[in-house]
Amino acid sequence: MTATAPATMSARQSWRTLTGWARLLRVRAHLPPVAVDATLVASLFILTAFAVRIDLYDRPWLLVFQAALLLPLLWRRRAPLAVFAVVAAAAFAQWLVDVQLPADIALLVALYTVAAHAGRPQVLLAGAVSEAGILMASVRWSTEGRFLGAAVSLTAIATAVAVIGTNVRTRRAYLASVEDRAVRLERERDQRAQLAVAEERARIARDMHDIVSHNLSVMIALADAAVFAQYRTPDKSTTAMRQVANSGRQALTEMRRFLGILRADEPDALRHPMPGIAQLQSLLDQVRAAGLPARLRVAGDPSHVPTAAQLTVYRLVQEALTNTLKHTPPGTRAKVRVHCLPETIAIDVTDDGRTAQYPDPPHGHGIPSMRERTAAYGGMLRAGPLPGGGWRVSALLDLSAAGTAGTGAA
């Protein structure tokens, strides 16, 4: 019991010492640099003064050297090389009067500061000056036969201090670069998010235009036909109004699916597939009911075409027929041809109507949205009047180039 008591007390003292140093480091981490330097200078001044037992009556001028060596360290972070030059000059003056003081440790602090805050040329210059001072001090103050040992030991200390300062500067530069990179990556992430939001808004505007514009055009045409036929052929009027209701339901279903707000208690809407090449015939039935005779021809096997590409084909045909329905006179006929190949899909929509104006004004979304859809699949869309009258919209989708566009292309 008595044997273990000293060991226990020693362990407790060691623990208290470590705890004290940890508290000191925590306090230092929260202090401003000026306060840290002032504390350092004051501590060194007191310790070195007591070490040499300065006699204020016999040799008060030693305080001048103390101040000249230590006080410049207050500005060591602002002007590292200038502070080192002042401290070195004070040390040289001390060497001239043949006085050796423990305050010479300020030279090591100044050398460390140059290595930690200045560039390589300044570090080499400060190191050369320090080495010259070491040789001069070793010549004057080393005992006979110990010049080499003194010079080597002091050079080793100065080299270690310079290396430590250089490592600190390198680590600080590395941390700054990492922080700068993190800031740049965060900025790039925000920019990508903004671009994604803008792209999503454009996609929403494009799809909303296709859904709303086509179905409203069909519904308006059917309603006009129903009003015209309500007295002469009531059966056709009733059929047209039912088609108006069906078109409205289909538009609501597509909007709910598109906006992603389809509720779990609406199983009927879930049974409707995403529009594709197989639904083109139903699309043409709608425009025929609205008064636009149209024919469809699908060549090739569309089973290998991805769902997103099929939706793009459907939207292109839908927009082209909607423009024909809106901007051509009665009696216009339309033809739709879709040719499916292993790597490409060709879409061609023509009509024989004579348009009085450009079918999609510059501020509209129709043709620009079709161009965006086609570009997403590495293709190009051509839209313009035919030589003999009418209008043609043709597009070629490259499935291998942008099949990865996914639903974003839709």
Spell out the blueprint of helices and strands:
Layout: H1 4-30, H2 33-52, H3 62-70, H4 80-96, H5 105-117, H6 120-141, H7 147-229, H8 234-259, H9 267-270, H10 280-289, E1 294-299, H11 307-327, E2 334-340, E3 344-351, H12 366-375, E4 381-385, E5 391-398, H13 399-402
Parallel strand pairs: 1-2
Antiparallel strand pairs: 2-3, 3-5, 4-5
Helix pairs in contact: 2-3, 3-4, 4-5, 4-6, 5-6, 5-7, 6-7, 7-8, 7-11, 11-12
Helix content: 55-70%
SSE sequence, one letter per element = HHHHHHHHHHEHEEHEEH
Report the total helices.
13
CATH topology of the largest domain: Heat Shock Protein 90
Mean pLDDT: 76
Strand content bin = 5-15%
- Total strands: the figure is 5
Q: How many domains comprise the coordinates? A: 3
Structural class category:
alpha+beta
- Low-pLDDT segments: 1-11, 358-363, 403-410
Level-2 CATH architecture of the largest domain: 2-Layer Sandwich
CATH superfamily of the largest domain: Histidine kinase-like ATPase, C-terminal domain
Shape assignment: rod-shaped
Straight-line distance between termini? 83 Å
Top CATH class of the largest domain: Alpha Beta
